[in-house]
């Protein structure tokens, strides 16, 4: 009997448009003028968007709208597959009072992140993370937190040569929140697609997050976790690996 076991775990500490005051800005540097002033962005000048994010898998940004009293923190998550460099956008909008204390929340999110992972034994995993466009202000209050939810989707295909492939889909709610009593704000995306076919079992988890302890200190992160198992025809495969995409801090 052949047996193949891989268990590699790395702990990661992590669409094409931006929303400002109801304006959706897509490609084109001239659209920078339609946004609130940029406090910071990394890589430099990665907004409204560049084709390759200067070689990074992300473009994080902080915007400050002093007129509307909105402070935004967001990240673009780059894909690696397809004719265009598609990416998904997560933009958390904090509604602040005259002292710049958050008291309500908004979200702009949209786009696609498509990635392919070449794995041992010729295996491959295609993932497509997507966000149906959401543009919303105003959350629900529960205790000290104000929060809102929005839909995210994950489509995956895992292939093992000469054996077959398994497809999986998932739809789940992502979570955005602000705490009115302490410095704790963020967006949390964790979605898992599970599939089984041809004796192959797959579980793929897509994670993305934005976490803030004040208006200028933010952590942006994203990673993909892949689980594949197969136990038939004298062949055993157990594969588990975490693929970090990025984990970066604003450090202003």
Automatic annotation (TrEMBL):
Keywords: Signal
Signal in keyword set: yes
Lineage: superkingdom: Eukaryota
Signal peptide: 1-17
Protein name per Swiss-Prot or TrEMBL: Uncharacterized protein
């Amino acid at each position: 009997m052949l047996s193949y076991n891989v268990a590699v775990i790395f702990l990661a500490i992590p669409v094409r448009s931006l929303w400002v005051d109801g304006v959706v800005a897509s490609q084109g540097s001239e659209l920078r003028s339609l946004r609130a002033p940029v406090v910071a962005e990394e890589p430099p000048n990665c907004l409204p968007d560049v084709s390759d994010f200067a070689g990074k898998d992300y473009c994080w940004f902080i915007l400050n709208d002093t007129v509307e009293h909105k402070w935004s923190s967001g990240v673009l998550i780059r894909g690696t597959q397809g004719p265009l460099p598609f990416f998904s956008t997560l933009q958390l909008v904090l509604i602040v009072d005259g002292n710049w204390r958050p008291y309500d929340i908004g979200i702009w999110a949209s786009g696609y992140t498509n990635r392919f992972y070449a794995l041992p034994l010729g295996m491959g995993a295609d993932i497509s993370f997507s966000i149906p466009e959401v543009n919303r202000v105003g959350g629900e209050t529960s205790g000290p937190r104000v929060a809102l939810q929005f839909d995210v989707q994950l489509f995956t295909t895992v292939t093992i040569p000469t054996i077959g492939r398994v497809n999986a889909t998932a739809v789940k709610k992502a979570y955005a929140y602000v705490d009115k009593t302490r410095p704790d704000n963020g967006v949390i995306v964790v979605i898992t697609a599970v599939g089984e076919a041809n004796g192959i079992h797959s579980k793929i988890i897509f994670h993305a997050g934005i976490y803030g302890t004040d208006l200028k200190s933010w952590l942006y992160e994203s990673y993909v976790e892949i689980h594949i198992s197969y136990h038939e025809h004298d062949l055993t495969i157990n594969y588990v690996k975490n693929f970090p995409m990025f984990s970066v801090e604003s450090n202003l």
